[in-house]
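Hi R.,

Here are the chain sequences for the assembly we discussed:
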Amino acid sequence: MAGLAASFGSGAMSNSMDDVSQKADAFFVIGSNTTEQHPVFGTMLRRAVRFRGAKLIVADPRRIDLCDFATLHLRQKPGTDIALLNGLMYIILDKGWEAKDFIAERTENFDEFKATIMEYPPTRVSEITGVPVNQLYEAAELMAASKPMAVIWAMGITQHISGVRNVMTLANLQMLLGNMGMPGGGVNPLRGQNNVQGACDMGGLPNVFPAYQPVTSPEAIEKFSKAWGLDYGLSTADRVSPSTVHRLSSTVGMTATEIIPGVLEGKTRALYILGEDPVMSDPDTNHVRECLEKVDFLVLQEIFPSETAVYADVLLPGVSFAEKTGTFTNTERRVQMVHKAIEPLGEAKPDWWITAELAKRILQTSEVLDAPFAGWDYTDTSAIMDEINALTPSYGGITHARIESGERLQWPCPTGEHPGTPILHVNKFARGLGKFMPIDDVPPAEEPNDDYPMVMSTGRVLYHWHGGQMTRRSKGLMEVYGEALIEVNPEDSQKLGLNGQNRVRVTSRRGSIEARAWITDRVPPGMVYANFHFPEASANELTQAVLDPVSKIPEYKVTAVKVELVS
Amino acid sequence: MTVNITLNGKKIEAQPGQTILDVAKENDYRIPTLCYHKDLSPTGNCRMCVVEVKGNRFLQAACVTQVWDEMEIETDSQKTITSRKLSLEQMLANHSPNCATCDVSGECDLQDLAYEYQVDAPEWGTKGTRYKVDSDPNPFIRVDFNKCILCRRCVLACAEVQVRDVWGVAQRGFEEIIVAGANTTMLEAHCESCGQCVAYCPTGALSNKLSYGQGIARARQVTKVTTTCSYCGVGCQFDLLVKHKKVIGVVSNPDAPVNGMALCVKGRYGYDYIHHPDRLKKPRVRRYLLEKKDKRLKGNAWDWIETDWDTALDITAGKLREARDTHGPDSVGVLTSAKCLNEENYLMNKLARQVIGTNNIDHCARL
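And here is the predicted structure of the full complex:
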């Protein structure tokens, strides 16, 4: 998201799934296993290819299911995306296929960018990426000939130390081709969780208030201080109790991948975790366990006793989506209702109620001033949405009542009359001109060597979800996919002496897991693929907490490992 | 250019390329359909939508016949009604007669039409079951071809909605049957268990195994609640089926903005975690907190004790305030949740910033 924010001024998916799947002349899917991770959108792509004749270029080290529908599959080595994309842009520039008018009218910094690209001729790129030169030409030609083309990606692009630069490189590509601000084009990062977009929009990030208002901005601090009854430099006369009224912090906070390791550095003393399972989902599980064991106090609000619950001091029972009413925001910025179908089980409570109760009990009346939104007495989530409307410009006009009446709203939707915004950056980028970023190739942090000769990539499978707390408790899903499987290429499996029934041990510098091997050409020789759905063999025992310097995202997609037969 | 037709005696202007069924719908004439579904290619094989076209020797299937200029159509002549009854009788002759024990009774298109036209299974029909009941090992989809009327909606749903081509048609005549792949199991035929075929099946031939026997189609017992899926970011909507305060199933809601009828295996069939016995139903605190002892003490200090909300909330609030006041606001870390509501995430952001005074708030967007 940081990457798109720098290039365009807004970090969200620019288009809608509907216009992308119906209007694109071609799709470029890179680092997204769409049919398994966003299955219903995956089927929209398949329909477009089969019934509309849309072209599909897949760039992925794995032969994912979508490759069966692809016009062209580029099988780059893990962690070489920038080189691949720069190489494609070299050919486009070399042949004069770039969108000259678009570049002149709507972008800046083109010359500097072009100078960098010129260092990526096809032969060099082929050497770095392993993609044959003729395929590079074929792909560039398809891209140039297909107007508009939509670029679609997910964690395969972002979960690298170069994640932000990968994203900026894709933004460069779409500006070069002039595919921004129109139906069927755009930059389309697919958000993983049901409400990861909403959690970001609502200020669940260390650097921004809701709607990406920076925590370092004096205007934003004044706005939220006034709303929440805090002190932002009031005169002494205005202060009820000058010594105790809170101030907002204007320092950017720590990310999840810093907060937890912060325990061992003495920075983090207490943790309040809502519906997350860092033991399963964070890199380097052993290190996470050590941190959680050492923290002074951990309160976990959950629906299940997760792997993280082992380390909790207090467990507060929240509820599933079937037991509460409110909104989720999907990957295309569409805000939709969630409706309560059943009462909370047992004594469990809706999560918003629990958070509000905690706030009321922590906050002393002397710590806040009288202000419109200082208090925590909410009758329901629609009352919370009223407060969101008042403080979150892009959600200004998104009320429960409007959604209930059948309106289909995608933010930005600043007022009650605004119809919402299905496509961003039409005629003008959020930041004015789109900015070309000169980006150089960055090798992965951990490259294979003699001790750890293979590369492991991680991800999810169709039948499971993230740390598996939900799907491992679903009977049918476990029947179809009941244990962790490690994907191993037939060539490697022969070298290892696998027969299709064996278990393998995969070891990195940080840990070791054992699981049954699935011999398949989905992975190329030299690469294995593991998931993190099962605690007995979670890939995150092996991954490392090496982060992108800007977004602090861990490099899940490249870990050096050795693979052995378990006899 | 328009074409002028006469529909049940009324002069109507239609567009070239429109089918009789399209024009009839636009003008509020109902023609009964069974194999037809607006999302799928029309095949004209069930013969329920037959209409009489002046000058034609045979009845025409309205779903596949395009209008032409000066076409004269009767949608409910005696001839069409007799023909529909005969078609229904032939379908019922090959259809398991046990509506009372059928899972989809109440939401069965065949049952509705048989009732509308007052047709029963004929005396000369098939006796007993021709095929194995629950014949496929797929854990989500229950297959009973004794109820299949060979309408091919499942074949088309798999080919045109899911684009997976699991289902096909084998044999001819009386032996004609729907098969997965080259007559193998669904999963072996690369089925993704999305259940689109179940959603489009007009009878009980394909039904939901997880909720089988719970009467998901019996409207008096079940309420439907439209909501948004809790798995990925696509944001599919569907209806949760609730009976006796329990979620017993998920069905497609055709009005869903993003996905229409389509869902994936997790969305349609991954709901049973909601009532899993592991669900936390009471607040728990470690014993040391109640006894105000040291956390690291050996013995039973680390046991879970179930407690009431006030106790758990007061202990938690006290500990978070203590950390804030002793070590500073930045000693507290808050992880909010990409699985929770916008409203809940907003409150977590407010709690971290207003109540604690820290920007140490994040969630799993990066993971």
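Residues 2-190 of chain A form a domain with the Dimethylsulfoxide Reductase; domain 2 fold (CATH 3.40.228.10). Residues 163-177 of chain A form the longest helix (15 residues).

Let me know if anything looks off.

Best,
T.
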